[in-house]
Amino acid sequence: MIKKIQLTAVLFASLVAGAAMAQEATEVPNSYGTGTLTRAEVKADLEVWNRSGMGQLSRGESTPKVFSQRYRQAYSEYVRMRNGPEYQEALKKQKSK
Known about the structure:
α2 (39-51) crosses α5. The protein has two domains: 1-36; 38-97, no CATH class. The N and C termini lie far apart (63 Å). The protein has helices spanning 2-26, 39-51, 54-57, 69-82, 85-95. Helix content is 69%, strand content 0%. The protein is an all-alpha fold.
């Protein structure tokens, strides 16, 4: 009887923890701190991602060589553009559609 109660308690705790983790995984943080991204923000980010060269490096089935000089330069450019006026311009363009 005690084992059945313990098993039920462990199962319940696992379900609660799993549900909490699943909810956290679906929320994508954005630069504004609201917890989720709008469609325009996602499209603007994708535009900057592709313009920086990251899209070319992420094509195909194999994982990109993340330690290569080319990848690091493209990622650095993406971060610069994402935090700069390029992203704001892309976002403005997406919101006007």
